[in-house]
UniProtKB/TrEMBL annotation:
UniProt xrefs under SUPFAM superfamilies: Chemotaxis receptor methyltransferase CheR, N-terminal domain, S-adenosyl-L-methionine-dependent methyltransferases
Organism whose genome encodes this protein: Pseudoalteromonas prydzensis
Protein name stated in the entry: Chemotaxis protein methyltransferase
PANTHER family associated with the record: CHEMOTAXIS PROTEIN METHYLTRANSFERASE (PTHR24422)
Enzyme Commission numbers on file: 2.1.1.80
Amino acid sequence: MKEFLLTDSDFKQIAAIVYQACGIVLGEHKREMVYSRLARRIRVLELTTFKQYLTYLDNHKEQEFSDFINALTTNLTSFFREPHHFEYLKSHIVPKLLVSNKSTRRVRIWSAGCSTGEEPCSVAMTLHGLFPADWDVKILATDLDSNVLAKAQSGTYTAANVNGLEPRQLQRWFLKSKDGAQFKVKPELQQGIHFKRLNLLQDWPMKGPFDVIFCRNVVIYFDKETKDQLFTRYYNILSEQGYLLLGHSETIGKEHSEFKNLGKTMYLKVSYGM
């Protein structure tokens, strides 16, 4: 017998709240995940059932809602995850930007769903030294989960977190603690990254345009209607000939003719109908 009662009605209500708030679809196969993650909140609040928790959530939305969403969003990431994207950024995208953006000397890259910060840091490491010193190159890193965003802003990682990096990268971009257990991103790398909490389904305060958007392993949690809306919004905020990079199991359907499939979950913004 489980510690807390989670009825079908409770689960459907939780799924509906999450979908309405951030477009994430929680199917029946996610029931155990929902139970284990929200059970922690129930223990902290000293409640006894999920029904009680839902009542508490309804009565304390300002205080509890962030913890509720944080508990149910997945944040699996690593440095240079899906390395072909970073290789393509360096070998194809940057050379094109050096030509297309020569008059403005401005480059903007968005890491949408940055989690604990490994992705935007990997982008920053990739871009280092590729643009002239007088160019204005900035990376926006956003996430829905305030907890992981705080970790990303701290720039502090464990030895396990940086395990996949090369020794020269660690030496160049990280400060190692005396006991070797922690690695902190050097200010030089982090100064070009701006971290901000953002719900992708709500209004976006930034105007763009962005030259590259990394939105990897995010839309996999959305239903088709929400994905289509998001892809349209990405199209509108991308610069002409801008790039959208998705996660390894994510695709843009053929009905979205405004994006050209470059292969390996990489897409180029094109004019409608082309």
